Amino acid sequence: FLRVKCDACQTEKLVAFSCKRRGFCPSCGARRMAQTAALLVDSVLPQQPIRQWVLSLPFALRYLLATRPEVVTQLLGIVYRAISAHLIRKAGLTRASAATGAVTLVQRFGSALNLDVHVHRARPCARPFGQPAAVQIGSPADLSPARARRGLSPGG
Q1: Hey, is 134 helix, strand or coil?
Q2: Rounded-to-integer distance, Cα 146 and Cα 153, Å
Q3: Alpha carbon distance 61, 67 (integer Å)
Q4: CB neighbour list of residue 28: distance below 8 Å, 6 or more residues apart
Q5: Per residue of the chain (156 residues), what is the pLDDT tens digit?
Q6: How far apart, in Å, are the Cα atoms of 139 and each of 32, 81, 90, 145?
């Protein structure tokens, strides 16, 4: 809110402040975050346990991703394929008999507005089709920094 004062009569009023998406506004950011969360919970994500994966990156890669969005797309594809393959394999299934899905949110700044490109990905917990119990999955060993570098290289 802003407090405004009339110079002529000295009357003060509180006026709701909105940045109109022109910058970093905590109020607008919080509103958009709440709207996105409600949409995901109400309309997108299934009613089952969800696992969040967070991909944090080395500083040099953060600068590359901040300036080249097409590289972000490539990296997200590599991460998606690696985690999907891992989940399908741990569930004892094959790509022909299973499907995976995810919701990805890319954050470009840290809490201090520092450049910190990182990825939050929400995925339903792994389970075979028709089975109510989740499967213990561990972590994907094939998602190593070397694997990501190979995938991002011109021939990868």
Answers
A1: coil
A2: 11
A3: 10
A4: 18, 19, 21
A5: 677 888 888 888 877 666 665 556 667 777 888 898 899 889 888 887 788 888 888 888 888 888 988 988 998 998 888 888 888 888 788 888 888 888 888 888 877 778 888 888 888 875 544 554 444 555 555 555 565 556 555 555
A6: 31, 14, 10, 14
Is the C-alpha dihedral spanning 123, 31, 64, 69 positive or negative? positive
| Contact (CB, 8 A) for 122 and 51 | yes
Closest-CA residue to 141 (of 77, 87, 72, 76):
87
Q: Which two tokens stand for residue 37?
A: 């969360």
CA distance 156 to 154: 6
Average per-residue pLDDT for the chain? 77
Q: Determine whether 25 is exposed, middle or buried from the number of CB atoms within 10 Å of its CB (0-12, 13-18, 19+).
A: middle
DSSP for residue 125: P
Cα 90 to its chain centre, rounded Å, is 23
Which of 97, 82, 107 is CA-nearest to residue 127? 97
pLDDT tens digits for range 17-27? 666 655 566 67
